[in-house]
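[Automated response] Your request has been received and processed.

Submitted sequence:
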Amino acid sequence: MKHTSKTRRQLQQQLDQAEDYGQWCAAAAALDELDGLLAWREQEETGMLHESLMRQHMSLMEQCRQDGDTRRLIRVLQESLYRHLGELSNPDLYAVARSGTNRLVGEFLDAVEISMAFICDHPIPDVTTARKLKLFRDAERVYGRPALMLSGGAAFGIYHIGVTRALWRQGLLPDVMAGSSMGAIVAGAICTRDDQELANFFEYPERIHVNAFRWLGVTEALRAGHAMDPQQLQKHIRYNLGSASFREAYEHSGRTLNISVSPTRTQQKPRLLNWLSSPAVLVDSAVMASCAVPGIFPPVTLRARDSDGDSGSSVPYMPTESWIDGSVHGDLPLMRMARLHNVNKTIVSQANPHVVPFISNHDQSGLTSWAKRAAVSLAHGQLATALKLTRQSPHPGIIRPLIEQANAMTSQEYLGDINIHFPAKPSLYLKVLSNPSPEDLEMFINLGEQATWPRLAMIKDQTRISRAFDRCIQRLEADLEKEDKDTTAQ
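Generated structure:
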């Protein structure tokens, strides 16, 4: 028993101190073996899946491939995905073992991916390449795609760089991203870079401009109505992101950037800015607005590319409106992302200082988890009551907007389908509104990577079909282009 306890401590230490995902996986697998959880991963029956039906569908897919029956394979694949997607999304599948889930999940996804590639590569009677490409695009649109959403967090938001780097290194970084406040800076830095530029960004984080904060003096702050210098923040954003419009960023990187901003007027609605809804808006002005925490930075008027001027000029966008921190009303714009970009799976990196202490993950239970949920519910109830009273008052003064903002912050959803969150360490709160030292920068990035590793198996599985759709569509597009060239040459 003593030997087992010592081994467990050593393995747990290796897990906690892992410097890369390979080291983490090795320690996680060793701990799973010690706890008998590797045996669970090999079990024939888990109680969480319809195992017999899944195996039947896998057998049918294989038979269709052997017979070369692409039409029937399509029907089997459609039925199988429809029947089993809910089970495969069950987070309980990833709450048992550290190193992954039951092997049947991987075997089923293997069968689906092989079948999709077979349909892509083999002829369908009376179906041209162009028609097949349309079929895949339509199917991909129905199925949906994953999105990564980065919350606010002030200095804690540097942790998002570690989260995104861990995903990038495993080929799992979604092309659709959203950010608010500090998350907007990180998302903007990623979505304004092409693949080579992004590889350099992740490889050399010491080159990042980190001095976003400069406190104003007391007299200057009272006169200005905000505590920090917005010009310093703008310098930080411009250095790390440049000054491109949303459309220009999309055309350069191939990634879809979404930035949340909140209105200063109660009659105005929060906005999700991207190349579809606001293509000419400048990314740096949107990020600046999304970082404008009330009392810390002043509200921002958005700017857009001037269509009548040169490429470097800009004009005010909606000049009568000003915008503040996207976290106030839309830290995670889940529904708007789903509607605009057909998102079916949300990966959330949560680092908001006022949210992190109250997060209760799916795999957490007990008194602590209950207390977190109770505290959030109590705060929301009290703010809702206060808001109702101020709305009934004939002289609400300045208190109503403050309560409305606080109510919006407590009532919104802060979690997605797969959640990665900043560790709740009280000592780090002393750093939340300060520029990081080189050591702090490395520490925050490492925390982000370490928090992501336990979620990678789930992310890999639950985004695998979307990535298979991307590969098939790219392959068919290449085939169609080749056919067009051959036709032209004849």
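Summary generated for your ticket: The chain has 21 helices and nine strands. The first helix runs from residue 2 to 16.
If you did not submit this request, please reply to this message.
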